[in-house]
Design goal:
alpha/beta, five-stranded parallel sheet, 8 helices
């Protein structure tokens, strides 16, 4: 068992929204590893970051991604930093991975100063640029297709992802 589509990309790009639309259009289930982590841990991701630190969160995330890749056959959205782990990137090899991309101005509009995004707590524009410098090549490495989300509706992004993967709606 493996996912029909795996969505990767930065926080705020629309992985959850597009993932749910893709699942509806393909007549399959939707799963988000961030939701899995919150359910299993009984606390928010921001709380895990504050209480245990980023490295502890990444270990939890790595396990959640491994379990989801092995146990879900629908549309799967990964947290923005999941691709940082080399083992996770190896597990994504051969999967139908779509990297949803956006530029910094769009990211700031979407994420703003949201306290639920601990990596963007101070100077979000600068921090987002730095995160993307560290992650963009990793998203591209694992992606079978790249779909830009800037200035597009979730429906347009969904259609572009289906077209890029040459998948037909159910």
């Amino acid at each position: 068992m493996s996912p029909l589509i795996v969505l990767v990309g930065p926080m705020g790009v629309g992985k959850s929204t597009v993932g749910q639309l893709l699942a509806e259009r393909l007549g399959t289930g939707y799963r988000d590893t961030d939701d899995d982590i919150v359910a299993a841990q009984g606390r928010t991701i921001a709380e895990i970051f504050v209480e245990e630190g980023e490295s502890a969160f990444r270990a939890i995330e790595k396990q959640a991604v491994r379990e989801a890749l092995a146990g879900h056959d629908g549309v799967l959205a990964l947290g923005g930093g999941a691709v940082l782990d080399p083992d996770t990137r190896a597990l994504l090899a051969g999967q139908r991975v779509v990297y949803l991309s956006m530029d910094v101005e769009e990211a700031v509009k979407r994420t703003g100063l949201n306290a639920a995004r601990p990596l963007l707590a101070i100077n979000p524009r600068k921090q987002w640029r730095e995160l993307m410098e560290a992650r963009r090549h990793l998203y591209e490495e694992v992606a079978m297709a790249v779909v830009a989300t800037d200035g597009r509706t979730p429906e347009e992004v969904t259609r572009a992802a289906l077209d890029a993967l040459e998948l037909k709606e159910a």
